[in-house]
Every structure is written in C-alpha cells, then in structure tokens.
TrEMBL record:
Enzyme Commission code: 6.2.1.20
UniProt keyword annotation of NADP present: no
Full protein name: Long-chain-fatty-acid--[acyl-carrier-protein] ligase
Keywords assigned by UniProt, alphabetized: Ligase
Pfam family, one: AMP-binding
UniProt source species: Oligosphaera ethanolica
Amino acid sequence: MLYLLLIFVALVIPLRYRVRVRGLDECIKKGRKGVLFLPNHPALIDPVIVNLALFWKFRPRSLVDIKQLRFGVLKYLEKTINMLPLPDIGISGKSGRDEVLKQINACVDSLKAGDNLLLYPAGRIYRGRYEKLRGNGGVARILEAYPEVRVVLVRTRGLWGSSFGRAKGYQNTFGEVLVSHIKHILLNGIFFGPRRDVSIEFVELPDDFPRQADKDEMNRYLEKFYNEDAPPNTYVPYVWWERGGSRVVPEPDAINVAVDTRSVPDEVRRKVYERLHEVTSKKILKETDTLGTDLGLDSLMVAELHGWLQEEFGFQVNNPETLRTVGSLLLAAIGESDGIEPLRPIPPEWFAKEDAGLLLCPRGNRITDVFLRNAAEAPNFVLLADQSKGVFTNRKIVLAIMALRPSIMAIPGDRVGILMPACAMANVVYLAALFAGKIPVLVNWTVGLRNMRYCLDNAGVKTIVTSSQVIDRLEGRGTDFTGVKEQFCYLEDIAKGIRLPHKLRCVLASHFCWRSLRRAAVPEIAAVLFTSGSESRPKAVPLTHTNILTNLTAAMAPLGLRRDDCVLGMLPPFHSFGLLMNFVMPACASLRVAYHTNPTEGDMLARLIAAYRATMMVGTPTFIANILRRANSEQARTVRLLITGAEKCPEAAFALFREKCPAAAFLEGYGITECSPVVAMNHPGAAKAGSIGKILACLEWRVLDREMKPVPAGGTGMLYVSGPSVFAGYMHYDGPSPFVDFEGKTWYRTGDLVSADEEGFIFFKGRLKRFVKIGGEMVSLPAIEEVLLEKYRSEDVPLPLAVEALGTEEQPLVTLFTVLAIDREQANTALREAGLSPIHNIRQVVSLTAIPVLGSGKTDYQSLKKLTENGG
C-alpha cells in the first residue's frame, strides 16, 4: 500500500513541480544510517517533496505536527512510515512541553539506533521570504545529547509563493490546497499545466558549524545557510492559458501591532520584569524586545512563561505564539492578548447589499421553528462566518444539522453538554442538539474543574460535544479536564463516522426536503446555563423557548436593527448574553454574525471588524474597550451600535467609545441569567448616561425596601421582576427560593440594588451577592473563601480568614485577609487542588490580628476594605 502511494505521488508531483535534486549522491556514499536531516520549511508541500527524494535510500522518520496526523491525510500513514508526533506548542502550551522533550529524547534514541530523522529546525513554515528560527532549541538539544551525530543540511528553493505556503499572508489547509490543485490539473488536461521550478540541495554539515555553541549561534548559522540567495515571492500560474507567466509579487504585509501598556499596573509590570530577568539573565529589557530573536527564548521557554502568567495572574493566554514581545507579556498579565494570525480573505457573498429595512423580530414558539422559517425564506442568505470555517448560508447550516443530527440523537439521555467557544460550528451544534431532541447544556470551562464537575453532575450531563482542537487549546492554556475528558464526544470523530451515503442524502434533503427537521421532537427547554456561583456553587438555570424568544423580541424591538447589520460575535454560548445575542438572535432574526473565539484578542478583533464590516459590538465594557484601544478610526468606521452589560461601564471606557466611534449609539444594559437574560437597556435616541436603561416591556418590576414596601423615585432598593422571560426555578436545587409572592403574583428577587428616576430609568447601585469581574468572567469571592476555610478553619481559629476584592473595578485584586501565616503560593495551591481555575487566584495577602465581624457574627467586609484604605 505504501509503495503504491509513493509511486502515485512520484507520478503526480511532476505535474506541478519541476524538481531538481543536488548533493544526494554524495550523501549516499557516506552512509545511509543515523543521519539527522535539517531542512528549511517554505511551505506545507516541501516535506512531501523532500521525503520523496530521500525515501528510497534513507527512509527517514519525520517529526510531524500532531494536527497533521489528526486531521490531515497523514493520519492514515502515521504507523506505516513510523512518524513521531509533536505537539503544537502554540496550542498545547505548557502542557505540551514535557511531550516535546520526550519526543526529542526519542529522536536521539532513534538516531543512535541507526534510524534517519527529518527535523525542521524552525518548527513552522515561512512567514516571510527568509527562514527565521527565532529562539528554537531543538537542534541544540539533540546535538547536546548526541554530539557526534551525522548532520545533513537541506536547502529547498522555489516554494516561497506556493499556495501551500503563507506568501499570500495567510495559510490554507493542506487539504484545501490539494483539492484546488487536483481541479487545476484536470483543467490543464493533466499534462499541460505550468510547472514551478523547485531545487533541493543536500549538504554535509560544514566543519565550521558551531557544534559546541549555544542554540542562538547555531540558529544564526543555519539561517545564514537557508537564506543564502533566497528567491523572492514568486507566483506561477495554475492554468496554461493564464496570461503574465511566472512573476515576482509583493511580499505579504507583516503584522506589527503597536502595544499600548499604559493600563498595566506597576505591581504587575514589576513581577513580569523580575521573571524575565530571572529567565534571560538580561539586565536591560525593552517592551519592544522580541522573546525569540532579542531574548533568545525558544518555544519551550515561552510555553513555561505562558504557564507562569496564567498561574501568577489568573488570566488564560489563548496562544503562546501571541507572546511575541515583552509588551505582549505585560498585556497578557492583565488579560489582554494579541492576535497575530493574518486574516483569510472574506468571501464576496458575505457582504450584504445596503438595506435599511428593519430586521424583523422572531415569529414563532420555538427557536427551531423560527430558524427554519427564516431559512426557507432565504436559503442562500449568508448568516454565519468565522476565520476557521468560512461562511455558512442558511442551507449550509441546515445541511450540517442534518449530517450531525443522527449522531447526537444516538447520545444516551435527554441532555447533552456543549463545550465550544464562539464560532460558527458552535451555533450549528446548538441547533443540531435541539433538532435531535436533546436539551443543550452549555458548559463553562472557566469556572475551574471543581465547579465544572458540579455543574455537569447537577444537570445530569453524561456526554459533552466538543472539538479536540478546542480541548487541546484549552489544556494548553491550563484548563484541567481531569475526570471530565472521558465524557467528551469529539466533532472530529462524529465527522469521521458519517458515511458517504448519509452525506449524499443530507445534500439532497437540504435542497429539497426539510420534513425531518420540521417534525423533530424539540424539547421544551431550549438551554441550560449556569450562574456564576456567587453563593459558592453555580446553580443550573433551565430556560425555555418562550423565555428566550420573549426576551429577544422585547430586547430587539427598540434597537432599530437593519437587514444589513452584522454583529461581532465574541462571547461564548455559556454566557447568557452571548447565547442570546450571538447564537439565538442570528438564528431567529437573521442577524449576520462574524465570530472570533477569544474576546481578549483586541487587535485581532479590531481587524475582524474592518474585514467583515461589523456594525454592532456586544460584550462587556472591558472587552469592547480592549478592542477599541487597539483599533484605529478606519477599522471602527462601520460600527454604529455598541451594547454593553455584565459590569458598570467605567468613565475611561465611555470616553474611548466616544473617541473611536463618535457616530455610534452606546447602549448600556443589565441582565441576569435567570431572566433570559436582558432585564433593562438604554435605547437609541432614548438613553441616559450612567443608567442601565429602562426595564424591558415584557417584564413587570418593582423596587422595594427590606419591608417589601415600594421605594420612592430616586431611592435605593431591591429590584424584583416578573414576566414570561423569567425562568421557573433552578434544577436540582434545595436552597432558599429566589421567588417571593406579593400583589397576588410571583416575583423574582434579583439580589441587586437599584434606584429608578421619575422617567423610569434604572441606576445600578450594587450587588448583595459578592463576586467580581476578572478577564470577562464573574469570579465568586464566597467560592474562593469556602475552599480556604475548609482547609484552614479549626476549633482554635474558627474564623481564620476572609476574601475580598480590592484594587479598581477594571483591575480587581482578590485579597486574602488572614490571621494565619498563609502566603500566596500556599493559598493558590489550595485553590488549584480544590479544582478552581487560575482566574480565582489570590493576588495579595494581608495579615491581621483578627478578622472583623458584624454584630450578627458574620464577616465585616466593609471594615476590611477600610482597613486597607486607611493603611491599617
């Protein structure tokens, strides 16, 4: 089988590439065992060409990115050609470091045993005309362990500009490019297509190579060899009738985003610089210093920094590759990340014609019914988009639902977990679960392992639909799935199990017959979400179709949304506001949404706004302010509506909105998961600064004092609401009821203090529940406190500690007040052992002789804050 495949590849390669090999005969004369081949890496196709040249005489083993083995054609050949899988540090982060070191040791053992090894020193394909090894240390580690190994350098020329590379500024998958080349070969009559000239040169390692030097000196030597007379970006036509012939084209634009670190607190800055001094031994550091080229950190060392940032500051870094400079480390330490990936072109069909017609509110009783009606009216309307999957029309969504539905129906039980970030496939999976008769339970992975397990058990979830790529990336960011991973059902495995006949039936049905979806037994509950756990454990909130659709209709009515509007979807579906605005609203109101999985990547999101011409941003003030800080006026030009919630908008953020989007309407609102979730919003043309707007028309409301008496206008009291968008009660909950009865009806007690003026505008005054917003997530202070009290409370010291948030609203410092000798490391170790995520970490410890208490015996948190304010 292998030999037949190699013969086939050997016959196909010359149809596009005119390959010349030099120096291989001299290598063969010196022996064919125990050789370490070190090639440059201009494109995804060069491993195929180099392996083809070497296979018959050397049969080398290759270190291969695990993504290629898992998702590419190589998955069928891994065992046959004895490849060595290598984790992508950019995804796996610190968790992949040990595996990388293990594989390097395996490489050394393989070479000593006489195997030949193909290893790419750069670890990634070219980003520009020249090979850059940065601080990578794979070669140095192998030579340190096996100094006498025979080394052959391999220099490939002619592939910079290939569609298998990144010369156009972005990278298509190997499969996508392969399919396009097959089409071109057929169009050219197989044998008559233009050829790209490619040369491969094999050179025995010169005597002047610095074998005993450090990795930086080795890398500079290799770069000089690879980049000698490097050819420019060369375009070669794909069909013989294309005019212009082969030609040099401009190099791709480098993405160099200016880093603004003014918002980084001095204490955070000091800790980051101390760590860098320790790691690099360099005394002088600049924010513009690159971690690889300037500081000499390889990918493993950057992965260690990545893990340290998460443990020290609690914010998850989406991708270690975004940690490029000292400045980017500083931003990551306060929960902001850079997105450095070039954007793939947006398909022309995405851009809707200008249409000022009003977007219609949902009409129907179930989310699935409303979606099908909209899809039937405009099956070719492009609704969803992201950089990973491109664009989805209504028909393509229906096709994907039909393909997935049988697999989800086969999952035991009536509930299925969904663990996915904001992306087009998350929307598809959510709808497919409903059409499969399953209740979608949206899993929040940011709450930590302890709370995640509790949520899944409480909701009765046995199976969680997710993606292996999502899990790899989350584990790389430090998320622990111990004891949960066994419940995962990966979309990649589902896709593998879908047979061709079923695919063909779904294609036909998506065009001609949607009867199976219209007749689906859709559950009454449309989603199960979880609270932030302000009373130490999250509570499961079941929301019906009526709850959500009523809320959506009432929230949309005053917004005046247009048919050509487009929202930037960055909030994940486990956020109630994210589920409503970025998932249900597109499906039920035909509002186009362009997704991005990480709401902290401000510069990437700013570029996406411009690329997709987004007109709406929905999120927390922290997330939106981070985007606009990175955006220039041109990038934000299309934005006409900013909707924020979940936290009070700081004055600095409001000033930034006015500066970057002067023509946009800024609408602050307020919501609660239990209310589906929007409770109050400002409206375009009817907004009041500092308020959270007016209560939605679908809700009745009261502001009452402790004696359940109405509070006069301007007075502060508890907010109570009642209406069809309010949930019916928590699942499997035996605590005190959140409902009260008065005036002959049932009201939901929000737990939030507000005041209302004469015009009905609501002003948020504070929460009785104790939690803070960190990195866009609600962090429960009682949850942290409970874990520490369980560990440190004793008969001798019944109240040894308390947890409160100091600092500012934008940069809260979770502070441990204690009468015991507990340091930060001990406290955070206890939190990690209890399964809380790094975002719950203690930031500082304050020692006291006694914890202040109220007359009731409860902790006096106000006094704790005053102690620090007064320096006591």
